[in-house]
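Consider the subject:
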Amino acid sequence: MTHHGRRARPVSLPQKAAFAGVLAVFAATWIHPLWPAEQALHGSLAVIGLVALWLVNRRWALGDGAFVAICGFIAIHCIAARWLYSNVPYDAWLQAATGWSPNAAFGWQRNHFDRLIHLLYGLCFTPALVQLARHAWPALRIGQAFSLAVMAVMCSSLVYEWLEWAIALLLSPEAAEAYNGQQGDPWDAHADMLLATLGSLLVWPLARREAGR
């Protein structure tokens, strides 16, 4: 029983499977770590996220899709953390698997895996945030709940960039560059926040369809 006297919601089989999958990915990314200290800094966010997800889901019922989406994001984040985002060899992986190189196709000089992570943050967290907003305020219309979710993504993205900046101040210039993964881009933080917002906005058709059921 919770402290309010309400029984905790049982965790569904898809949610248990997704959670177990994230834990497996997390463990695998710590086999022979390449940059242990920096990976630990990034990986700590995954641990906090998993604990928070489990507790929130026990208190407020998230749909399977929203829960699995967050697990998927954390799993990809763990992979990114192993290679400190800017060193993820996605181009080599795709060339080996398909013979196609996104770097060659788009003329990329920069590793864009960190951009993908921020886009996925908005995509994967917005459904859960919409559900939580409607749990907290049942009278909200879907558009209002969605607006709150987008604003939550925008604000949390800003706070994350502040956190990165604060951590970087404590590190040497070389370690700060490796941790932040700016790759020389002075607009890195702005692009990351924009992509998170765009990812969140892309969820609107799904949220509206789900609300209409």
Notes: Residues 171 and 190 are 22 Å apart (CA to CA). The chain has ten helices and no strands. The two ends are 31 Å apart (CA to CA).
